[in-house]
Amino acid sequence: MDKIINNYEILEIKEIISETNTIKTFIFDWEMNEDRTPLPGQFVMIWSFSKVFDEKPMSISMIDKDKNEIGITVKNIGNFTANLHSLSAGDKLGIRGPYGNGFNTENIKDKNILAIGGGVGMAPINCFTNYSKELGGNIDIICASVTKDELLFSNSDNEINDNKLTDKFNKDKATKNIGTVNVFTCTDDGTCGFEGYATHRTTDLLKYKSYDMVVVCGPEIMMKGIFDLLKDKKIPAQYSMERYMKCAMGICGQCCVDKKGWRICVEGPVFSNKDLKEIQEFGKYHRNASGLKEKY
Amino acid sequence: MLKTEISGINFENPLILAAGVMGSNASSLNWILDSGAGGVVTKSFSQEPNLGYSNPTTVAVEGGILNAIGLSSPGVQNFKKELALINKSNKDGQKNIAIASIYGSNPDEFSNLVHNIENDVDMIELNVSCPHAMSGCGAAIGQDPDLTYEIVKTVKNASSNNIPILAKLTPNVTDLMEIAKSAEKAEADGLTLINSLGPGMKIDIDAKKPILSNKFGGMSGPAIKPIAIRWVYDAYENCDIPIIGVGGISNYKDVVEFIYAGAKATQIGTSIMYEGIEIFSKIKNDLKNFMQKNEFNSIDEMIGYSHKN
């Protein structure tokens, strides 16, 4: 009980990084105590108590255990997020968490991992890849967005040219790199990297390489596309879901999904493809604050 | 051994999911039923859709939580579809009991709700006790003995199939027994005691503001149990209709305490946050062991035990 009571804190924003025109990362000092050390894929509840009064779940996009910092990465899409974007370093926000089940990162040393992030869905993917890289995973990231300016965490250092794909793979294989990260950008309008959706890009990559594991976060329609694509391939995959949340403590029932009734805030937000098969509303509908179903 | 009966409705065990907890859709209700609950109460719903209050809607405090969800509801026409999906029996083949919690601000709304759903559920619980409801709803009714009488009477008359009606009452009154007797006089089939306490408030000293967007909210959790026990005990002495005890239950001892005070069944809510949904199966097993050890053969033998000499 104490664990839940004591973890609400008002923290100063330590630093704000402008990632794109619409996306910012907010960094906070964060003591890595036993109950508070986050895992990639977990989320925190962010309470804004000035100007706009509201509280929303946000994926953790950065965990730095050496510097005792965490980050959240927020796209400006509504009143709440517009207000966050108007804040400066030194302004304060309430934070509680971390909550939920993160990505399973067991036994990923030397494994070939495909991490797919669509839009601001790159936030937990970025957290996952940085974490997994240190554990020795070989990660290929599909960083997808509508257009070049909206690409998040595409870190051009790692970006590789499309027509050298096969060369790069062969080289990786030959030198047996461990803990590598390759970024494959993908934009709907073709302004950077592959032109098309993340699903197309995934299909393309799977022609060249086999993966031991896939992690995905993005718009639910994109995730459904990836899910359908991978479902016959027998590659273990994990998906990070999102639903309207109120308590985030597993009690109010707002984020329970059909048909198992699982709570996104406790049993999720990350689900394996095996579990996701049981979530019948995945890719179809979600519920608003009143409980009313809204189709995707 | 664990069976109990309330107004002709037979429960496999005396552990019921309380209103407002994981009760927004049939899927989570079925999950709770499969995990061992004898019955479930839905989240309270109304005639028309309602978004409730904005976040923060819950905040943990010493001994429990405060909540001001604000009676969010998809409206009866939408919620009827969820009610239809509640399983009639659990995964072990035992009969499930579904209780609909309804709220409104006037007799007509309550009557319409009853007409709409009386064939979809086994019982109806009237939420005349929510401490953070909009004006005219919840505790605004349950703090007034005449209004309580009027709503209960209206609902009883509105039912064409004589579905059992439970009145869930608020402890936030001078004399709860006066309200309980009004409900009984209006022919309520049972009392659910108690709704959340207060309302209370939590101010964050760094933000210098109340955390809940509604500023105040109902208190639930272990800290309110002694108050709930007291009202169940008093109601057992003052009323002749069955009582369901609710407030701060987190283990079998709490359940036994409520039953000894006079409850025929109990409801569990907030402790799911601490214990998970496994709490139903755990308490069920522990309760059975307790009864065997203390040579009780039925829940009936235990009801009101603390009133006996």
From TrEMBL, chain A:
Entry note: cofactor: Binds 1 [2Fe-2S] cluster per subunit.
From the UniProt record, list the coiled-coil ranges: none
Residues holding [2Fe-2S] cluster: 247, 252, 255, 265
Q: Does the keyword Transport apply?
A: yes
List the Gene Ontology MF annotations in alphabetical order. Answer: 2 iron, 2 sulfur cluster binding; flavin adenine dinucleotide binding; metal ion binding; sulfur reductase activity
Keywords per UniProt? 2Fe-2S, Electron transport, FAD, Flavoprotein, Iron, Iron-sulfur, Metal-binding, Oxidoreductase, Transport
Q: Name one GO biological process term.
A: pyrimidine nucleotide biosynthetic process
> In this protein, which residues make up the domain named FAD-binding FR-type?
6-105
What cofactor is needed? [2Fe-2S] cluster
Highest taxon listed in the record's lineage: Archaea
The record's section on InterPro entries has: Cyt_c3_hydrogenase_gsu, Dihydroorotate_DH_ele_sf, Dihydroorotate_DH_Fe-S-bd, FAD-bd_FR_type, FNR_nucleotide-bd, PyrK_electron_transfer, Riboflavin_synthase-like_b-brl
> Keyword Metal-binding: yes or no?
yes
> Which EC number(s) are documented for this chain?
1.12.98.4
The record's annotation in Pfam families points to: DHODB_Fe-S_bind
Gene3D superfamilies listed in its UniProt record: Dihydroorotate dehydrogenase, electron transfer subunit, Nucleotide-binding domain of ferredoxin-NADP reductase (FNR) module, Translation factors
Which family is annotated?
Answer: Belongs to the PyrK family.
Protein name per Swiss-Prot or TrEMBL: Sulfhydrogenase 2 subunit gamma
What's the source species for this entry? Candidatus Methanobinarius endosymbioticus
Classification lineage: Archaea, Methanobacteriati, Methanobacteriota, Methanomada group, Methanobacteria
Tell me the gene name.
shyC
UniProtKB/TrEMBL annotation, chain B:
Which cofactor does the UniProt annotation name?
A: FMN
Family to which this protein belongs: Belongs to the dihydroorotate dehydrogenase family. Type 1 subfamily.
Q: Name one Pfam family in it.
A: DHO_dh
Catalytic residues as annotated in Swiss-Prot or TrEMBL: 130
Quaternary state and interactors? Heterotetramer of 2 PyrK and 2 PyrD type B subunits.
Q: Which UniProt keywords apply?
A: Cytoplasm, Flavoprotein, FMN, Oxidoreductase, Pyrimidine biosynthesis
Record InterPro entries = Aldolase_TIM (IPR013785), DHO_dehydrogenase (IPR050074), DHOD_1B (IPR033888), Dihydroorotate_DH_1 (IPR024920), Dihydroorotate_DH_1_2 (IPR012135), Dihydroorotate_DH_cat (IPR005720), Dihydroorotate_DH_CS (IPR001295), Dihydroorotate_DH_I (IPR049622)
| Entry EC no(s) | 1.3.-.-
A GO BP term here is: 'de novo' pyrimidine nucleobase biosynthetic process
The name on file for this protein is Dihydroorotate dehydrogenase
Any one Gene Ontology molecular-function term assigned to this protein's record: dihydroorotate dehydrogenase activity
Q: In which pathway does it act?
A: Pyrimidine metabolism; UMP biosynthesis via de novo pathway
PROSITE patterns, A to Z: DHODEHASE_1 (PS00911), DHODEHASE_2 (PS00912)
Q: How many cofactors are bound and how?
A: Binds 1 FMN per subunit.
The reactions it catalyses are: (S)-dihydroorotate + A = orotate + AH2
**Phylogenetic lineage:** Archaea, Methanobacteriati, Methanobacteriota, Methanomada group, Methanobacteria
Question: Tell me, what does this protein do in biology?
Answer: Catalyzes the conversion of dihydroorotate to orotate.
